[in-house]
Amino acid sequence: MQTMFRWKKLAVTVVKNEEGGNSVATVVLRGSTDSILDDLERAVDDGVNTYKSMCRDSRIIPGAAATEIELAKRLKEFSLKETG
Predict the structure, then answer these.
(1) Which of 7, 20, 38, 83 is the most exposed place for a label (fewest CB within 10 A)?
(2) pLDDT tens for each residue of 8-58
(3) Cα separation of 46 and 40, whole Å?
(4) pTM here?
(5) How far apart, in whole angstroms, are the C-alpha atoms of residue 50 and residue 58?
(6) Does residue 44 sit in helix, strand or coil?
(7) HSE of 49, CA atoms in CB hemisphere, 13 A
């Protein structure tokens, strides 16, 4: 596995809303260039929108070769049980 990013310090602070109600999250991003910061912002936005969509409608279709990967795993398992 190849590491994409390296950092010297990572800080995560979690504040829980114990009383329920509406939840708000603040994400602070830092990038060495505006281009990297834009990419990070877009990635977080995509993730949030995906989560919102999944909360509204949980039906999904596997993508990014997920079907092929699962078939390959099952074929390998099946092949180990067969002789000849």
Answers:
(1) 83
(2) 777 777 777 777 777 777 788 887 888 988 898 999 999 889 888 888 987
(3) 10
(4) 0.50
(5) 11
(6) helix
(7) 6
